[in-house]
Amino acid sequence: MKTELSEYISKFTSLTAQEKEQIIDNLEVKRFKKDTILLKEGDISFFCYFILKGCIREYYLIDGEEKTTAFYTEEQSVVSFTSYANQKPASHYLSCSEECVVIVGNPNEESEMYKKFPKLQEITRLMVEEDFGKIQTELATFITSSPEERYLNLLEKKPKLIQRVPQHQLASYLGVKPESLSRIRKRLSMNK
C-alpha cells in the first residue's frame, strides 16, 4: 500500500522520497469490516477518510427508505464536509459496503501534519479541487440524464462498481427502483 500511496501523492506535488516516507509513516491507517457504520445521521463527524481499498456508501434515510447518494472507492476522499468542518450533526450516513482499508484523519492531526509537512496542505487542496470538479460534473450529468443514461454512464466510468455493491443500492443511487434497473439491464443486453 505504501508504494501506491506514494505514487498517488506524487500526482499532486513533487516531494522528496524522504518527505513522502515521513508523511506516509505519520498517517493513521485503519481497517473496517463490511457494513461498519462510519457516520450516522445526527452524529457529528470527527473524522475524514481516504480509501486505500474498499467502498464506502453515503446514504440518507428518508421515510424509512435508504437513498444512496454516493459510492466512494479507491483513491477517493470521504468526508461529511458540513458536519466535519462546522461540527454540526450529519444529515446522512457513511457505511462500508466492503471491507475497507482507509487513512483516517481528524482536525487536530491535520493541523499537526500541516505544520510538520507544509507541502501536505497543497496536496490536500489539490485533491479537494480535483474531487470537487469531478463531483460537479457527475451531478450535472446525473441531473440531465435519464435512468438508462445514468446506468450507461456508470458502466463507462465505474464498471467494477456494478459488481461490488448490491443491486438495490445501485438502483437507489441511479434514482430508480430495483425492478426498473432490472428492466434497463435486460433491455440493454437485448440491444447488444
Please give a quick description of this structure.
The chain has 192 residues and is of the alpha+beta class. It has helices spanning 2-10, 17-25, 81-86, 107-116, 118-143, 147-157, 161-164, 167-174, 178-190, and strands at 28-32, 37-39, 48-53, 56-62, 65-72, 77-78, 93-96, 100-105. The strands form 2 sheets. The chain has a 4-stranded antiparallel β-sheet. The protein has a 4-stranded antiparallel β-sheet with strand order 2-7-4-5.
Structural description of this entry:
There is one protein chain. Helix content is 50%, strand content 21%. The longest helix is centred in the C-terminal third of the chain and has 26 residues, at 118-143. A hairpin with a 2-residue loop joins strand 4 and strand 5. The strands form two sheets. It has a four-stranded antiparallel sheet. The protein is α+β, with helices and mostly antiparallel strands and 192 residues long.
